[in-house]
Amino acid sequence: MQGQDYIFVREFVAFAASVLIKAWKESDDSEGDTEVILGGMAGLHDEIAWFKKEASKWGVELSETVPQKANQLYCRFLESLMSPEVDYTVAITVFWAIEAVYQESFAHCLEPDTNTPPELQEVCQRWGNDGFGQYCHSLKKIANRLLEKASDDLIVGKAGDDVLKKAEVELIRVLEHEVEFWNMSRGTA
Questions:
Q1: Whose CA is closest to 40, among 56, 28, 23?
Q2: What is the reported pTM?
Q3: Whole-angstrom distance, CA of residue 152 vs CA of residue 40
Q4: Structural domains of the chain, count
Q5: How far apart are CA 20 and CA 171, in angstroms?
Q6: Which of 38, 42, 109, 150 has a CB 3.0–4.6 Å from the CB of 124, allowing a cystine?
Q7: Domain hosting residue 52, numbered range
Q8: Residues 104, 122, 178, 180: which is the catalytic one?
Q9: pLDDT at res. 121
Q10: How far apart are CA 30 and CA 84, in angstroms?
Q11: Which CATH number fits the domain that encloses residue 129?
Q12: What is the Cα 37 distance to its own chain's centre?
């Protein structure tokens, strides 16, 4: 499934770039949003290089990998969120959710008594490590801050309700896409 992950990460880079632009345009950056997102993008560079190295090791030709349906749908979903009309609050909530699901899934494999096969330990350590967990926590803080602001705007009669509803809908869509992607990876989709 490395090829499918590689395809997704390449699309995720474009999505991350769109979130970075939204952060630059819509935040005063006193909270360091752009630095957090930019740090994540640097990690994506390393991730792509790692996928290429692993594909070479396993004889997988990434350029010949055809995206499976679950991957195509997830990538289309990401593309739909790159539009300038999508609010930064919605985009960062989705960004956090995608990263957090990935990190928590692999962190679970590192817990005692999970019987993770030795050949998967490196992968689990790569994405389940505490450093990636801290990064996800930073994204969560940004998303929570913006969601709170939207909630406060709603209380004072500004347009926060629409943003909150969209963020909730897109968060649920992330979870649905994640389930389908993991099922695809396990060969059950």
A1: 23
A2: 0.91
A3: 28
A4: 1
A5: 19
A6: 109
A7: 2-186
A8: 178
A9: 80
A10: 22
A11: 1.20.910.10
A12: 11
| Polymer length of the chain | 189
Q: Pick from 37, 73, 99: which is nearest to 173 by CA? A: 73
Cα–Cα distance, 77 to 181 (Å, whole number) = 13
pLDDT in tens, 95-121: 999 999 999 988 888 888 888 787 778
57 burial via Cβ count (<10 Å: 0-12, 13-18, 19+): exposed
Residue with tokens 């209380």: 155
Quickly count: other Cβ atoms within 10 Å of residue 113's Cβ: 5
Share the mean pLDDT of the chain.
91
Active site residue 178: yes
* Residue in the structure block whose two tokens are 């609050």: 89
Asked if 49 and 126 touch (Cβ cutoff 8 Å), the reply is no
- Tell me the per-residue pLDDT of 8-64, one tens digit each, with 9 for 90 and over: 999 999 999 999 999 999 887 788 999 999 999 999 999 999 999 989 988 889 999
